[in-house]
Amino acid sequence: MSVSAIESTLQQMASLATQAAGPSAGKSADEQPLKGTEPGSFSGELKAAVGRINELQQSAGNTAMAFQTGDPGVALHEVMVDMQKASVAFQMGVQVRNRLVSAYKDVMNMPV
After folding, report:
1. Please, is 57 exposed, middle or buried when counting C-beta atoms within 10 Å of its C-beta (0-12, 13-18, 19+)?
2. pLDDT tens, 77-101?
3. How far apart are the C-alpha atoms of 30 and 20, rounded to whole Å?
4. Which of 12, 74, 78, 91 could form a disulfide with 66 if both were Cys (CB 3.0 to 4.6 A apart)?
5. How far is the C-alpha of 69 from the C-alpha of 41, rounded, in Å?
6. Residue 21 belongs to what H/E stretch?
7. Do the Cβ atoms of 112 and 103 come closer than 8 Å?
8. What is the pTM of this model?
9. How many Å separate Cα 93 from the centre of its chain?
10. What are the residues whose beta carbons fall under 8 Å from the beta carbon of 6, sequence distance 6 or more?
11. Residues 6 or more apart from 88 whose CB is under 8 A from it?
């Protein structure tokens, strides 16, 4: 798998996660970026994608908890849509991880 194909997949993943998440809240002031995770770098984009998947899962969990506690402002269909968004995002993250591991193994098995 070529680098451009991986970058294309990551960009698609980022745009879909952004569309699914809608407007997101700002980052906390105490969140320190790790070395090599600048925006635009591979590790930075990967970290951001994992963060967006985490936000979707937390949002879905909060919506489900609100529904279970009887919040009148939360409907069942909202809970189901949020849970499905989180599930799809997680499955896509797993597939990207699998592809990256496969590409790494292919590179490592190349004769020198």
Report:
1. middle
2. 999 999 999 999 999 999 999 999 9
3. 26
4. 74
5. 42
6. helix 3-21
7. no
8. 0.61
9. 6
10. 99, 100, 103
11. 20
